[in-house]
Write a structure and sequence with these properties.
Number of strands: 6
Distance between the termini: 5 Å
Order of helices and strands: EEHEHEHEE
CATH class: Alpha Beta
Length: 127
């Protein structure tokens, strides 16, 4: 089990994402995610996970669907990328953003990126 008081270099770094994807775009999302995962792994990511919402209740005050303004014809997607460190992540994300395989003209995002929530996280505990 990794603990927070260990040096950052021994702790993974995680990027997390939540988005609303038009349900009809599931196949396009999987295709896009496969390309992105390959690019991310080549750029240093150790794991890329994409999850299609199956039991994601809407809340009254907070919820995944509320956070991404999910519509009736959309599905919430929860994703994360594991990196060996933040430094590897920073360099890897730069590589991904400049990789021609991620050009929106040839590999468009099959969802509204303006409603995607994302952030980078230091691992505090892994069990």
């Amino acid at each position: 089990m990794a603990m927070a008081n260990q040096p950052e270099s021994s702790m993974d770094y995680v990027d997390g994402f939540v988005a609303a994807v038009p349900t009809r775009n599931k196949d396009a999302f999987v295709k896009h995610a496969r390309v992105a995962a390959q690019v991310l792994k080549e750029a240093g990511a150790t794991r890329v996970v994409e999850c299609w919402g199956d039991d994601v209740p809407a809340g009254l005050h907070t919820s995944f669907p509320l956070a991404v303004q999910c519509q009736d014809d959309e599905t919430v997607v929860f994703s994360w990328i594991v990196w060996p460190s933040r430094a590897v992540r920073d360099a890897g994300m730069d590589k991904m953003m400049n990789d021609p395989r991620m050009d929106p003209a040839s590999n468009p995002m099959p969802f509204d990126g303006k409603r995607c929530i994302f952030g980078g996280f230091q691992v505090l505990l892994e069990s």
